[in-house]
Amino acid sequence: MERYAACIQERREKYPVDIGDTYKHAAEEVNLNGYSSIKGFIDPIRLAAVKEEFELIKSRGELQYNDFYTEQVAHPLLTCDSVFNVAFDDEVVEIAKSYFNCLPAINNVQLRKSKATTISESNIPGNGQTTLFHCDKDSPRLLKFFFYLNDVTDANGPFTYVHGSHLQKFNGWNSKYRWTHNDIESIYGKDRIIRCKGDVGDVILGNTNGFHKGTKVEQGERTILTVYYGIHPTEWRETFGGRMKLSDFESLPEHKRPLADYLNKV
Is residue 260 predicted with pLDDT exceeding 70? Predict the structure, then answer.
């Protein structure tokens, strides 16, 4: 936390900004509960454009990977103009500013589809392991925006969060990375496991330092755009969402360019 405090102070001094009250309540909810949601946050037409670009990339055989459960685009900011427009959207930035109380930056962007399977969550290989509970460990405090590109119910894999787990960890929580639903329910209780359903146009916010997962898709599919904001670079291996076009960076107004501090411009 000492390093985190130093990083946030550095960004406050380097990039002084005004922070409004529009999204204060949502930021407070994430601080308290670990998650929040805003209904009708973004025009669904803009998200339909993201989904259309996803399907076009798939049709060209250019997905990062495509297996029985997961399809994912590598570096969406390089390949999808519609993703760039959402990730750097004025209202998205306002939420991030309200949460961090400074001007943060984008660390990573993911664009992924999950498909129905009868395989148990514990046995889905590879990237499907996101169906198991886990905590993102690259920062004690971070913010992810989850945009569903199709309506999501209990049946098609809602983002699921353990209420308050960003503040309350149990002894041994760090002994392994993936935890089954039964593991987490036995520790936190059923009532604290929250399935964040939503429609196209809603946004779900989460500090994914708490326990979370994408519940396994039982019927249909779920396509999701995830934008990750933080106040320091990640310490993970190189991600597959941390690059953007140099031309897009240069098109940003000066006050938005710090939002790309942690992205590689190519």
Answer: yes
